[in-house]
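agent> Task received from the user: take the single chain below, predict its 3D structure, and emit structure tokens. No templates, no multimer pairing.
agent> Plan: (1) validate residues, (2) run structure prediction, (3) serialize to tokens, (4) report one or two observations.
agent> Step 1 OK, no nonstandard residues flagged.
tool_call: predict_structure(input=
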Amino acid sequence: MKRAQTAAFLLVALLAAAEAEARREKGGDKACDTGWECSGSRFCCNGTITDYFKAHHFEELFPRRNDSIAHATGFWSYQAFIAAAAQFEPRGFGTTGGKDTGIKEVAAFLGHVGARTSCGKIYPDPLAWGLCYNREMSPDQSYYCDDSNELYRCVEGVRYYGRGAIPVYCHPELLEQNATIAFEAAIWRWMTPVKRRQPSAHDVFVGNWKPTKRDTVSKRYPGFGATMNIMYGDGHHICGRGFTDEMNVIISHYIYYLDLMGVNHESGRSLDCADQVVFNPSTKSSGS
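)
tool_result: status=success, residues=288
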């Protein structure tokens, strides 16, 4: 019962945060209603994700997810993604700017998803295996459960490991039981700054974030590269280490998805984070 209550609380919190942010975004600007998918926001005036991202696109991006040797067969679906995205379209997810910007953002987000849930390293055609997993298969319980944290203690009997579309290293199990909620949690992570003095991945990608002089010196620029810095910069050691295999895999998924959707990608220093200094690193990570 306690686990179910925790899961329900997480879902309610995610949706409440999305709704509150949508109301703030609306402000005094014109708001549009496009039906169930997007309403009450100026971003809805730009159209919706289903205007340009159809079920056949999802199938082309993730053709092997239901293969018999995949580890989450039958779990992920286009319908689950669209239902989750609809909670954030009023905030600008996939609805900021014109059609090309929307396509690029969806491809960027799904590029992260595909890379983080792929089992392509062990099979041919590695970019076709996104959404192969919905949970970490060999979790290190001692790594994810910090017994020294007296404020947020690990719950006895609960296993802590990566779950969802962009793995969340926490309870509840609902993220590996409901694809819509798994996508919602991942999009919330994309849309929301998780640390002070740090933008969201959405903001650095669509151009809402303007780099300061310190950012420029730290080689942080708007674009896809900065999304990796925000999503994984603190603790995952992807950025600022040159052109590592892990970083290149994420970029490759993004470019591949854009190619499938018929849109060109940016180039140069905005595409990667090879030389970027981590945004606002924690003391533990900055010393590692």
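agent> Step 4: summary for the user.
The beta strands are 32-33, 39-41, 162-163, 168-169.
agent> Done.
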